[in-house]
Design goal:
Shape: elongated
Strand order of the largest sheet: 3-4-5-6-7-8-9-10-11-14-15-16-19-20-21-22
Order of helices and strands: HHHHEEEEEEEHEEEEEEEEEEEEEEE
CATH superfamily of the largest domain: Porin
Protein name: Porin
Strand content: 35-45%
Keywords: Coiled coil, Signal
Distance between the termini: 45 Å
CATH class of the largest domain: Mainly Beta
InterPro entries: Porin_dom_sf, Porin_O/P
Radius of gyration: 29 Å
Length: 496
């Protein structure tokens, strides 16, 4: 219709302009020149209109309800509203500048509207006037309290408090391809650098894109192990993530490449040790990878299949493989399953599998992992084994906050936030986990069963409560033999 209006207007103007000339009986050459000039004007106007509509189409791909708006309405709103980036799934909050895919980043760069500031999940996102530079502060505050009872050892029956995370950082992008993120944690009353990287992203085809990150990187390993501490459905990750792990832990300095398809992702990384001041010896070297696939995905259901591995060559300064894994919550260090003292480690290999999914508000996830440690001097290797089965149910209509791009959980998109006078989102959770170090002469074993409830006041504020029935059977350390008890833990968390 817009094209017809432009053509009609141009024709009318041409008729008015041509009237005096017609009265003087113009020649054929004059008429030909007039028609040629009118055609050039119409072509120029059409080219300008096509350009405007092309820009609006890019905005429409990332702006809710844009499909139902007319071009004039969108033009008016573009001047008054910042660009809104939709998430990779409607049940999670929109991604930050460092988590966009290249198509979303291009849409931001193609929609300059002056310097903009928009408020998302907790803190603002700043964009430059030309759309090239994007910046967002980020952080999380997780405050926990934990009380244990029922153990036959008085030293285990304690009540403690702690900061699970106290992070401040930033993330941003430069154009559609380059991005960065940096965070420090202060939870142990010390400055600890966690995520810190630079990255590049691009597309391979219309359906496949990739990114490459270099710096201090968070593991892509196991379902809960790849989920951030501010997004786990329980107060602490399960034993598959905390026990079947490289010796360096969750972070290492190196490079990671990730590839994303319509219903899958895969990653490979090579890293050294985490950030430290030790440069007198070689770093350990860890090569790791993970992939997930969603063979079934509808608006209300999904199936998740995943697998991962790591292989590490240990530094001469990291040969102690003694491990003591918490199983009754993070803030009771006495409730652990221990390996006993183990020295002379040479290398380790770990691998695991993930299977789960959701239907409506109900989700289920099973994980299993195994770690093989090889010792120097030709001594026999030993194995660590762990598995878990967890589930949750949203009572308030939300879908589980599953991120299909990464195959992990994110922050939920709460339908009826408390700050808007609503109820928020309520989730019931349950998990059983089992850990086995008994392949070692002094190794122990244990299990824990957890029931929990999560109340999400909005998409970035939550209150969590976990009740844990645990059992340990250690053959070394302070608390040996079979022991049972109960731990009740609670958390208030804010992520921005």
């Amino acid at each position: 219709m817009t094209h017809m209006m432009l053509r009609g207007g141009c024709a009318a103007l041409a008729l008015i302009a041509a009237t005096p000339a017609l009265a003087q009986t113009p020649s054929a050459d004059d008429l030909a020149a007039l028609v040629k000039a009118q055609a050039a004007e119409i072509a120029a106007l059409k080219a300008r209109l096509d350009k405007i509509e092309g820009q609006q189409a890019a905005v429409q791909a990332t702006t809710p309800h844009a499909a139902s708006q007319t071009a004039p309405q969108m033009a008016q709103q573009d001047a008054a509203q910042p660009l809104v980036i939709t998430p990779f799934a409607p049940q999670i909050v929109p991604p930050g500048p460092a988590d966009l895919d290249v198509a979303q980043a291009r849409a931001v760069a193609a929609n300059p509207a002056g310097v903009t500031t928009e408020w998302g999940a907790g803190l603002p996102v700043f964009r430059s006037a030309d759309g090239v530079f994007t910046y967002k502060p980020r952080g999380r505050i997780l405050v926990d309290v934990s009380s244990t009872m029922g153990s036959k050892y008085g030293g285990r029956n304690t009540t403690t408090t702690g900061m699970r995370a106290l992070r401040l950082g930033l993330e941003g992008g430069v154009g559609p391809h380059f991005f960065y993120q940096f965070e420090s944690d202060f939870s142990e009353n010390e400055v600890d650098i966690v995520t810190a990287f630079l990255g590049y992203r691009n597309k391979i085809s219309s359906k496949v894109d990739y990114d490459v990150r270099a710096g201090h990187l968070f593991n892509d390993r196991a379902f809960e192990g790849s989920t951030g501490s501010d997004s786990t459905p329980f107060l602490e990750r399960g034993v598959v993530s905390t026990a079947i792990i490289p010796q360096r832990g969750f972070y290492g300095i190196g490079i990671m490449g990730r590839m994303f398809g319509p219903n899958w992702h895969a990653s490979l990384s090579v890293t050294g040790d985490r950030v430290d001041g030790e440069q007198a010896t070689n770093d350990s070297r860890t090569f790791s990878g993970r992939a997930h696939w969603n063979p079934i995905r509808t608006d209300r259901s999904l199936l998740h299949v995943g697998g991962w591995f790591f292989d590490e060559a240990l530094s001469s300064a990291a040969t102690t493989l003694t491990r003591s894994t918490v199983i009754g919550g993070r803030f009771n260090g006495a409730v652990r399953v221990t390996t006993g003292e183990l020295l002379g480690g040479r290398s380790t290999t770990g691998y695991g599998a993930e299977l789960g999914g959701y239907v409506g508000g109900l989700w289920v996830m099973g994980e299993a992992g195994r770690r093989i440690a090889r010792l120097d001097g030709g001594r026999p290797s030993f194995e660590s084994k762990a598995w878990s089965l967890s589930s949750g149910l949203f009572l308030t209509g939300e879908l589980p906050p599953y991120n299909p791009r990464l195959g992990s959980f994110g922050q939920p998109n709460v339908l009826d936030p408390v700050l808007d006078g609503g109820l928020g989102a309520i989730e019931l959770t349950a998990r059983y986990e089992n850990l086995d170090y008994t392949d070692l002469v002094l190794g122990g074993d244990g299990w824990a069963a957890t029931l929990g409830v999560n109340w999400y006041l909005n998409s970035f504020t939550r209150i969590q409560l976990n009740g844990i029935q645990w059992h340990t059977n250690n053959r070394a350390g302070t608390y040996t033999g079979g022991d049972d008890g109960q731990t009740v833990s609670a958390r208030v968390g804010v992520t921005f």
